[in-house]
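Troubleshooting log. The previous structure file for this entry was overwritten by mistake, so regenerating from the original sequence record. Sequence copied from the archived sheet and checked twice against the printout by T.R.
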Amino acid sequence: MDKTLRLAMGSIAIGLLVLALKYFAYILTGSIALYSDALESIINVATAIAAFFAIRLSAVPADANHPYGHHKAEYLSAVLEGVLIVVAALAILRESYYGFLAPKPLDAPFEGLMINAAASVINAIWCSILFRYGRLWRSPALVADARHLWTDVVTSGGVLIGVGLVAVTGWLQLDAAIAALVALNILWSGWTLMRESIGGLMDEAAPSEIVARIREIISTHAEGAIEAHDLRTRQAGRVTFIEFHLVVLGTMSVTESHVICDRIEATLHAEIEDSVVTIHVEPEEKAKHHGGVPVL
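Regenerated output below.
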């Protein structure tokens, strides 16, 4: 099984464990704030399942109907996560509203807090793992899952402090107020996630540092060519698509120009992981600049 898929399956298992712990904490205490934390964990499980299927689909090779592959499936998963996060936040706001109007005393608050804290520690450890390997393997679905979990860790910390204050002070409305703050934080997280994922679906260019490296590689390894121009990049999940025009002497043979293209392409593949390179060779009259091998 693919290493990315194994991590996605791990997210499902961790999500179920954390959900069970947080829901048990809510049952013990009756706290709306802990309920909001548990509800977000339900979304964690749902999005982990969505990420698993998205990663699995993105690994399917290109076919006649999808000649550029299925890499964007991971962005669809991230958008779905954002939508589910927003739905969870609205549900929490509803519960916090009714809880503020009719507050209830907490049962066994300290036991519930200890269980919730244990769940948060598990989430924090798994979140760091997802961040590390999601970025290393350039998986939008894993990174989105990690960001969602980090939001959960941060909000859980706030919930633990708030519910602790409720237990100490007896101010029951604070429980509902904390839940509302959690919901607003979750809303912001969902919006950020959807905005970034939509950017991927709209074929945004590769990050500026990667584009700069691509220009450097082309310029350094294009010996024998006149110039390269019309460089374009886009990212689809883990894959970076690179396209440009390479200008060579009109008298150069196809074999000679192909040697230059192979040299550039091999270096790009070695330096830019999961890259797909398309080079269009043009004669010298198509040059836009002369001197060296500039990349325009």
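The domain at 208-286 is CATH 3.30.70.1350 (Alpha-Beta Plaits). Archived copy saved in two places this time.
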